[in-house]
Amino acid sequence: MIETAEKLRLDKWLWHARFCKTRSLAARRVAAGEIRVNGTRVTKRSSSVGPGDVLTFSQGDSVRVIQIEAVGTRRGPAPEAQSLYTDLSPSRQNRNEISRNPAFEGKGRPTKRDRRRGDLSRRGSLE
């Protein structure tokens, strides 16, 4: 049986874990300084990461905090990729509750009947 390496290049790990579609995109993100490893900004594509390291990077409109659990041997299916890390980011439900508008009560637009009543009440006050 072939033993897996304890460390792997950062760009290659991001590609294995399916955070980037291609390895060259992963390498560009690392070179641009968009990835932090254990809180330190990294710009070298060949930086080694292993189990226990914590990665911080933006993805879409949120910040992801990922702890590496394993070093993959290939870019496999999504369930296999998800087993490589633990997501330490705040849950999506908590983020939605924080960003929700507190004044909105979910009633929506007034109906035609409600608009007529409002018009009549305003007309009565003007006359």
Strand content: 15-25%
Number of DSSP strands?
A: 7
CATH architecture: Roll
Category by helix and strand content:
alpha+beta
* Low-confidence spans: none
**CATH fold-level assignment:** Structural Genomics Hypothetical 15.5 Kd Protein In mrcA-pckA Intergenic Region, Chain A
What Rg is obtained from the alpha carbons, in whole angstroms?
Answer: 25 Å
**How would you sum up the global shape?**
elongated
CATH class: Alpha Beta
Overall structural domain count:
1
> How is the main sheet built?
5 strands, antiparallel
Q: What do the pLDDT scores average to?
A: 83
- How far apart, in Å, are the first and last alpha carbons? 92 Å
Classified in CATH, the superfamily is RNA-binding S4 domain
Share of residues in helices: 25-40%
SSE topology string: EHHEEEEEHEHH
Put simply, the count of helices is 5
